[in-house]
Amino acid sequence: MDKKYFKTNYIMIAFALLFACVSCVNDLDTEPLDEDIKTAENVLTDANSYKQLLAKCYAGLVLGGQTAVDGDPDISSIDGGFSSYLRLLWNHQELPTDEAICAWNDGNLRDLHDQDWDSSNEFVTAMYYRITLQITYCNNLIKLTEDKPEYKAFSNEARALRALSYYHMLDMFGRGPFVTEDDEIGSFFFPEMATQQELFDYIESELTTIETDLVDPGTNEYGRADKGLAWAILAKLYLNAEVYIGTPKFTEAITYSNKIINGGYSLESNYANLFLADNNLRTNEIIFPIASDGNNTQTWGGMTFIIHSTVGGDMPAVESGIDGGWGGNRTTKAFVNLFPDATGTDSRGMFFTEGQNLEIADIFNFKDGYALRKFKNITSTGAAGLNTSFPDTDFPLYRLADFYLTYAEAVLRGGAGGDIATAVGYINELRERAYGDASGDITASDLDLDFILDERGRELYWECQRRTDLVRFGKLTGSDYVWPWKGAVADGTSTNELYNVFPIPSSDINANPNLSNISGY
């Protein structure tokens, strides 16, 4: 799909459609008397209008508001730039870990790295409401197309996107309100709470139901859901099943990793190209991107945040294709130590060290901690993106390399249907790309779970995977693994296992008697 699928006018029309469709539902089931009022009947008139509504389901992953640069924000707890889905996802998956620390002191943002948030934290609240709003967008489209078989493909895409958001709810919150297209809309409707098991079962059922109906990998417009997205979510669901429901499903993780590996994807030859302004050309490896376009998806969240926030100090912003850095996110010494040579042999270690201190004496000093230049608004030919304020770089939410590593881990954890030799081969494909030759290859004797966790860090850092990985390995909280400023202590300290999940906001629990938090919050 051309990135211009997310043009601002599509988003605006889609938002108008969303509320037009809801506006005609009231207690008396009456029709508006004013013929100029937009309703589902007079707005949704052809395939293009339904496609515009589908656009909102995708745009909700990257944009924070309804007008240019996050104006008229979708949720009210914090502004549109701070509250975009991707920006919040990145903060929640990276800041509580060894991979990122932020120099900003905005509100209670620091709580994420300190692992001392509570149910009133405004960023946690925004992540929760962003997930539930995204589910609402998808429910709306699914409802409006349920008796229209000609739009089944749109409905299936929305179901896949809804499953993605329910997966994020399961992974980050462990439970939450459950609503589908079959539920009523209204102020007196209180959604029931879904437990971890119920969310797991629903996501699994939804995706296994629609996976055969989704189009084959690479045959949809760029940036839209296909079988690959369903396979990726299922592989993740199964890899983490023991965390979620107490039952290991590593055999199933191998099954769905194999579907991806044999699904027509291949590794991009140059690792760095996966994170540049023309990475939309890397669909051989990228399974599902969150698409950005410098002229048509202008937001202070999304990739604008990820790229600008990671440039500061003595880093030349022009080398990242942007008009200036925000001096926010860099990494910890613990992450640097995953690379034997932080300046050399493994090309994945994109550290900027000039003028930066390895040790972090002051969290709020960007120069404390090595900077990383993984994502850039520069093309593979060296040209800057279309707009130096708003990047063209897409976010690779899922890519093939992740499922090479998923396969290997699931084999090590006892899953059936795979073998160590194949796993070693997959790992060495990644390492040969990183090293440029076979000098970094491993043997079967080198492959254990600790190696897998470290290799996932080296390969997938800053791609919204680390928190989930550390939870699965039992190392996000507790004392088995500490890093600088974990638990708000300079050298790191043990933290309460409560922080393996985030709390449902107190505001929603107070409003809905059906909701409750996991014990401890």
Task: Provide a compact summary of the structure.
The chain has 521 residues and is mostly helical. The chain has helices at residues 8-23, 40-43, 47-59, 85-94, 110-114, 122-144, 152-173, 196-210, 227-239, 241-245, 250-261, 302-308, 333-336, 400-412, 420-435, 449-460, 466-472, 506-511, and strands at residues 65-67, 71-73, 101-102, 176-178, 192-194, 286-290, 329-330, 351-352, 371-372, 395-399.
Structure description:
Helices cover 39% and strands 6% of the residues. Strands 1-2 form a two-stranded antiparallel sheet. Strands 3-7 form a two-stranded antiparallel ribbon. Strands 4-5 form a two-stranded antiparallel ribbon. Helix 1 (8-23) packs across helix 3 and helix 14 (400-412) packs antiparallel against helix 16. The protein is built from 18 helices and 10 strands. The longest helix is centred in the first third of the chain and has 23 residues, at 122-144.
**Alpha plus pi helix count:** 18
Question: What's the domain count?
Answer: 1
Structural class by SSE content: mainly alpha
- Content of β-strand: 5-15%
Which CATH class is shown?
Mainly Alpha
Rg, alpha carbons? 22 Å
**What is the 3D shape?**
globular
Q: CATH topology, anyone?
A: Serine Threonine Protein Phosphatase 5, Tetratricopeptide repeat
Which architecture does the CATH hierarchy give at level 2?
A: Alpha Horseshoe
* Largest pleated sheet: 2 strands, antiparallel
Q: Percent of residues in helical segments?
A: 25-40%
**Beta strand count:** 10
- How far is the N terminus from the C terminus? 43 Å
Which regions have little confidence, pLDDT < 50, spanning 5+ residues?
Answer: 1-34
Order of helical and strand elements: HHHEEHEHHHEEHHHHEHEHEEEHHHHH
User: How confident overall, as mean pLDDT?
Assistant: 91
User: Within the largest sheet, what's the order of strands?
Assistant: 1-2
